[in-house]
UniProtKB/TrEMBL annotation:
Name of this chain's protein: Type II toxin-antitoxin system HicB family antitoxin
InterPro entries registered for this protein in UniProt: Uncharacterised_HicB
Organism: Acutalibacter muris
Pfam families the UniProt entry points to: HicB
Superkingdom per UniProt: Bacteria
Length: 124
């Protein structure tokens, strides 16, 4: 995913792609299966559809008395081999830290080593 292919609105992120069969742009909100994908022929149109989809989702949640889900909660399941799982758990125990702290450190190092920009959000 290229940074130029995303839009931000109300803490939601949309990935925009070109769909050559229909000669249009498609958008989907990352991490939010509750919000359907959308299409438009223009950049301004896809921005409008993204805003409308997010606003409609938030309005539907409010009318049902539900809190809108966050796209990225900070919880993520990582699948790996049993051997890697065991090695990391053993390392965490030897260091007297939680397994999740080891994973957070590893992810942090990956982000640093790959110059990945973290969105500026007040939750960070």
């Amino acid at each position: 995913m290229q940074a130029g292919n995303t839009l931000q609105y109300k803490k939601y992120t949309c990935l925009v792609s070109y769909f050559n069969i229909k000669d249009c742009l498609t958008g989907r909100v990352l991490g939010m299966s509750q919000i359907p994908s959308f299409t438009s022929k223009t950049i301004e149109g896809i921005k409008g559809e993204f805003h409308r989809a997010v606003d409609d989702y938030i309005a539907a949640c409010e009318s049902e008395g539900k809190k809108p889900a966050q796209a990225f909660t900070g919880n993520y399941t990582v699948r790996t081999s049993p051997a890697i799982h065991e090695a990391l758990a053993l390392y965490a125990a030897q260091q007297e830290v939680k397994f999740s702290q080891i994973m957070q450190q590893a992810i942090g190092e990956f982000i640093t080593n790959h110059n990945i920009e973290i969105p500026n959000r007040e939750e960070n």
